[in-house]
């Protein structure tokens, strides 16, 4: 059960107040009509889904109703940072491979 | 293969069971195979079994990073049913159901497949419309099913609260008599034993660290323990790690891996004879032969590879169970655990070719893979043997997420399994 | 007094923490017995000389009490004096004794002492090695269900009650600086330290009093009995406001981010039903900044032949029964040990005035404080020896002892027999690492202590005492102090002034790694040597599993069922691993560990559910007019969380009668619907209009103030998920309506796009669903009715179709009235602030008499809209259809400059197929037949199964207005198949034939609403 710091409320709150909304940083293509079916499908459905560092969008649904981002380890469930929409994560996965 | 029977047990009891053969070998892998299956869970082992038995491909290795059947095969709630809505899914799961019906005899291993029936409860008018729709589709697809009213449901499950006391009273249910449960571990072991006997090498405790890809074609796998192992075709059946393997292949999948939790009560005397599932109240239960109530619900909302989820999900599940079965309030929860389910946007699996030649994926079964074990293995084996997707697998290409030909089973898959 | 004692044949004259002045009466298997306050059910049973407390699951062997705590595998009882208060599977060692307690054993027929099934076990047992069921019951195939019904009957322990639980359970959310699990010496020392530093502390212990191991030992602290130190600490702790002490409270689960659950037994230690108004159990949900696990250790029994006979016990349990409960569970003791520590049991037994037949030590040259003490007392010590077998049928009567080699794995001399009625054994201690495993940490084998200790974790977790393998009281207290100091340092609190009490210094010799005592016969032929009592797992079974190729410890566990009982292998798992490791010629760590999962001990479902069942399972939402509907005899349907009036039967009307009446009245005069449940979202901001254009499929740029428009909302995939009418209230101000069930989802949808994709847009969304009551009056007389309650000019000229007007109604109440129609009739949707809803509703009825104003519910609403071919999102859509599939191209504007949500998706290859399922009207050939909703259509009803299906019926009703059935449904390529036939084969054998038609059955030109 996560204990999540809401960057808008500036407090730790219980996971039950929040909803996970999937992978963060997937911008809607600016010109959808120019996308091929493949590109559009990848925007809608295809995800990195990493085991390890994951940037994800959450919403404080039972609180301020604001969306924000979390960098979390999907294996240990540690929350490494929270940051607002539009901001960049400071912790990123090591892409050595 | 040593034949199993009651007579065999009697015979072996005279020698104090000292002479039973090994169920499978513990081989060192060869340098090259016709087919490598990555993942020694139920689906992977079934694939190997059918490859060897039905399609004559015996130069096969199953490479498993842990122990056989140790992933979701060991962690599910063992429900088997085939009452899916859309033709594509219904045909696939019914194909599996037919294999289940003779599986113990086919494997000479009692997988304890027990057709005690499955009720999918309806609590709203729309639930009942959906049930009618699904049962009618099932019937015309040759799948058994009936729509029951609340009174009929009560007769089948006397301990279910069908009164108006409930927040969402039971209005009726769909009933699939041929559905049921099976002994999950036995399924993996039975397939493993059958595959091993036919020459398949089962390589345990060996993690695949990379796929070897040359000119866009997969030619083998790299393992920490045995180095490179080559193969003409590679099939990945690694629920809970599909995206990780896909990344080795250089592509993404339309999957998210989520924790799915389940729990059992302490064993109690027989009280629940069938599988009861409710999407609206959000829980499902059956009783195992050992007497445990086997209970589950929905996935946790976040991505997770930790084989555990959040306690609030357990609380909601128990609330649903006590709401449906108030007499279980004093029964006690023994254990909870979690699996990692790869969920697909349309709640249907991916059995597919991939952007890499000769590399095939079987994944995305979400919360309901166990029931498909034999069918999935069979169609995947056929596809790997021929290098071309089996007709029942074709609708489940990963490329349906490009052209839009989804098979949306959310209604039928729901919370449940 | 003495009389009671004399009945309790094993009760000692003095000693123990029981209160001999408070005798209690309890019933066990129908007979009455006595015990004392302070007893557990187990200690009371032992005091009364009860040997057999259960029958084993597979072989029906008689079983006695083995342990004294949470690790007990055998004494699993059914508790409860009434049907409704039955509790299955209570561990007698954890149940406090109370007056009137009713307990019974869960297995055995006709009774637990004389169980006929044991003959089956004795004879058939040979045919029941692990996994036997996988090898048989397969032939003939048809017999499996019969076999299985017998297996099921034999399984299970206790039973669920047949009546509903009368008890109340609740929950508390707790926050603390330091959560201390376990109130033994380490936990108490840690709590005292943290409390003195001013930390917020919770300390919980599963036992009814704090003290842990000290409660059953004869040690001293600061030169006084340890109990006095406990009392001092407990008293000091209770003086702190910020210290919560929870006895009778098991910490059952340790979850991510330091979230722990505690099951507190509030009343079930003294009653099977909570006294009126009291809470039976409480689940504490704790969020701790730091956790200190001071959970102690469980002693391991040794594995030898017939080690399950009643009278075979874990050494420390014997000491506990003597020292804590004043019960010596036998007369003549043989103690077998591989370590010094267990000598205490022989000392305790001897000091209680009972006969120690011998100490059988597997080591060559034991020496240490306790060994010396045993020698001083003249107790016979057999070194380099082991008990290879216990003898007896329903209780131990003797043992066979054999000399062992140095490794302890072979017999090196002749076997001697000794008489004894009790065998206590100790193979060392297993740290209680369960909680530390719950969050995914893998335990680590420690060769020094011959046990697993907690592995590395990402939780803010500290450990102290025996869980780390620190077994001497001196060390345990030190660890408690230092763990607390570590936590305080992390918390930024200063270390307080605290001194360690002085504990007895005990010299202990080195323990020997011993798990499984060899027998003169090979394991497979020796008498059964049990590893897991509850699941009847034997050493031979584990060896067989390994021989058969089950080499991973998880395979061994699963094949033999080791550790799957309600005790979760607390006693047996390490022994089992050791036996498997030896068989596989590996070390224990190479063989692997098994991971413990929550719960540490079983938790009542009711406690986990708390109060969130029945009435509180899910909120019920009512409209402001709900009471009126109830009074009017409405039937309700659940839509989302709302209770909506479904229909209003009168007198003896059937549902269809009522619907016919409601439908006719509406189209002939005027009907009224409570539409308050429709989702309403207030949208403001200068970019509101642009935003609407992006989320709806049609154009919004030109919607003037005062106008309303219908819109479809799609996902990025182009599939419809909601619809509704949105009205322009002012230039930068709109009111959006959604479906009843879809309101929350739509609001989230708007928010996520605004906050993540288009944050630059100035737009604000507010849910106002509950702020407004909405009543729809519909029918030719609706305008006349509206005129009765407003002075506003609602004439056709002043108030056009798809307009809305602000006015006052029913005596000056401000209202927004929307002239929109879901029935095809002249309709007005009157919205007033919710508090006025009932008043306006009643006012309408006061004036509605002359028009036969008829309330109608959701079902009539469905019929009336179906006559007009209007869809209901969620009924006529299922997430797989786009607006063109619905035959609604008029609701899509492909020319909008911004590529609205859904536009790209609905143009994908599969979405533009000509043979997609499309929504059409369906006219049954026999007008009197109503197609069942959900019926599946086929073009050739004679086709063999599986039949190719073309689509299902989504909406279907009897139309009293049209005097025929009307239906809508999907048909592949249906929009191009007008006039063609579809067949619907039903479950009852009928095949209904229908013709594809326009879904608009009534007033296709829309004349009825344009009046």
TrEMBL record, chain A:
Pfam families: SoxD (PF04267). Coiled coil: none annotated. It comes from Marinomonas polaris DSM 16579. InterPro entries: SoxD, SoxD_sf. One of its GO terms (molecular function) is sarcosine oxidase activity. Gene3D superfamilies: Folate-binding superfamily. One of its GO terms (biological process) is tetrahydrofolate metabolic process. This is Sarcosine oxidase subunit delta. It comes from the Bacteria.
Automatic annotation (TrEMBL), chain B:
Keywords: Cytoplasm, FAD, Flavoprotein, FMN, Nucleotide-binding, Oxidoreductase. It is an enzyme of class 1 (oxidoreductase). It comes from the Bacteria. It is found in: Cytoplasm. Residues 35-79 form the Rhodanese domain. GO terms for biological process: tetrahydrofolate metabolic process. GO terms for cellular component: cytoplasm. InterPro entries: FAD-dep_OxRdtase, FAD/NAD-bd_sf, Rhodanese-like_dom, SoxB. Its cofactor is FMN; FAD. GO terms for molecular function: nucleotide binding; sarcosine oxidase activity. Gene3D superfamilies: D-Amino Acid Oxidase, subunit A, domain 2, FAD/NAD(P)-binding domain. Its main location: cytoplasm. Belongs to the SoxB family. It catalyses: sarcosine + O2 + H2O = formaldehyde + glycine + H2O2; sarcosine + (6S)-5,6,7,8-tetrahydrofolate + O2 = (6R)-5,10-methylene-5,6,7,8-tetrahydrofolate + glycine + H2O2. This is Sarcosine oxidase subunit beta. Its EC number is 1.5.3.24. It holds the Pfam family DAO. Signal peptide: none annotated.
From TrEMBL, chain C:
One of its GO terms (biological process) is tetrahydrofolate metabolic process. Residues 527-611 form the SoxA A3 domain. Residues 177-398 form the FAD/NAD(P)-binding domain. Residues 917-1003 form the Aminomethyltransferase C-terminal domain. It comes from the Bacteria. Residues 625-896 form the GCVT N-terminal domain. Residues 1-12 have a biased composition (Polar residues). GO terms for molecular function: sarcosine oxidase activity; transaminase activity. Pfam families: Fer2_4, GCV_T, GCV_T_C, Pyr_redox_2, SO_alpha_A3. Residues 1-21 are annotated as: Disordered. Keywords: Aminotransferase, Oxidoreductase, Transferase. Belongs to the GcvT family. NCBIfam families: soxA. This is Sarcosine oxidase subunit alpha. It comes from Marinomonas polaris DSM 16579.
